[in-house]
Amino acid sequence: MKRRDIGSMILFIVILSASTILGLTGCGGDSGPTPGNATITTTSLPPGTINRAYSTSLSGAGGASPYTWSVSPALPGNLSLDTATGAITGTPGTQATTIHTFTMHDSSVPVQTVAQPLSITILPPLAITSTALPDASIGSAYNQPVQTVGGVGPLTFSIVLPGTGTLPSTLNLNPATGVVSGTPAAPAGTFPFTVQVADTTGQQDTKALSVRVIPSTPPQITTTSLQGGTINQPYNQTLQATGGIGALSWVISGGSLPAGLILTPAGTITGTPINAGTSNFTVTVTDAFNQFATKNLSIVVTPALEITTPSLPNANENLPYTATLQSSGGTPPVTWSVTPNLPSGLTLNPVTGEISGAPASMNQGPHLLTFSVQDSRTPTPGIVSKQLSLTVLPP
């Protein structure tokens, strides 16, 4: 009986101890779970556009909600921060990039406060700023971007059809970069088109542009010099050029031609010069696309080549003889010749025109000779002839 009472007492003490321990555990003075660390989870702000509604929200985590928000320094003009929700709204009116410190306060006790610096960029409205594209040369690689300003997110470019036209078949517009590229091929010409750009917010802009395809080389004048002219003798020489496209047109763009000569649009200098002298002038050749080249040239006009020796003195057999032929005009130096041959014993110097020697026996009598003189005009030398009589007398 006594042993049973002792066992009952021990069981009662164990139960009482357990109840006490459990009661202490449940009422240990803790008001609830401890909140975690508060953090701002927004890491960047989207860009905005001038005169377009802007809306984004800050977000946080941890701590105890609700949160309250503040910002320093103030947001750009016309934008505001809702301190209760973290929403940023408004219609920005100034282009700029500014940095602001956003602060979040939670509702725990004590209050947790965290701050995060963030930048906000306000862009100008989306617009195409290219006003013209450079010329493209046939056979040469071409790579030119269509320039833009503003816009949000990736831009998309396209050729608007129907529009003012399209690009040459060998050029393409990159829809992601706006670069016009390729290698132009014939035919040459001006190709108008209308390009459009759009951003991710729905902004769009269009502009009419054009690409002019030109020959790979402009005209080049290959004539380096012009032949001389002679007074009162017809003159005709055609200027030469390479390159360019379409019909070439020639003009005198400086100085003047010799009196009596003209330059035709086809590039031929023609006419009959009337005055001696040197005329300096500049010629310009222009192709169908207004590509041009110039060159300075000159023409020398001389008096007509003429043999001025009126007659030859008589010679005597076996006695020394000398006589010099004379000429005027033409382009020096001159070269002399004679047909038929001089009487035996006499020779003609082709450079000086001097006849010298001693006529041999058996050459008595008059000898009718044709003397010719040739000048150095190029490409066609001037040449004139005159008959003179040389009489050989007895010794």
Your description of this structure?
This protein is mainly β and 395 residues long. It has 4 domains: 39-123, Immunoglobulins (Immunoglobulin-like, Sandwich); 127-214, Immunoglobulins (Immunoglobulin-like); 220-302, Immunoglobulin-like (Sandwich); 306-393, Cadherins (Immunoglobulin-like). The chain is 6% helix and 44% strand. The protein is built from 1 helix and 36 strands. It has one helix at residues 2-26, and strands at 39-40, 48-49, 54-57, 60-61, 68-72, 79-81, 87-90, 96-105, 113-123, 127-128, 136-137, 142-145, 148-149, 156-159, 171-173, 179-182, 189-198, 204-214, 220-221, 229-230, 235-238, 241-242, 249-255, 261-263, 268-271, 277-286, 292-302, 306-307, 315-316, 321-324, 327-328, 335-339, 346-348, 354-357, 365-374, 383-393. The strands form 12 sheets. Strands 2-9-8-5 form a 4-stranded mixed sheet, with no helix packed on it. It has a 4-stranded mixed sheet with strand order 11-18-17-14, with no helix packed on it. Strands 20-27-26-23 form a 4-stranded mixed sheet, with no helix packed on it. A hairpin with a 5-residue loop joins β17 and β18 (204-214). The protein is rod-shaped. Mean pLDDT is 89; it is low at 1-32.
CATH superfamily of the largest domain: Immunoglobulins
Question: How large is the radius of gyration?
Answer: 53 Å
**Number of self-contained structural domains:** 4
> From the 3D coordinates, which CATH architecture of the largest domain would you assign?
Sandwich
CATH class of the largest domain: Mainly Beta
Main sheet properties:
4 strands, mixed
> What fraction strand?
35-45%
* Distance, first to last CA: 201 Å
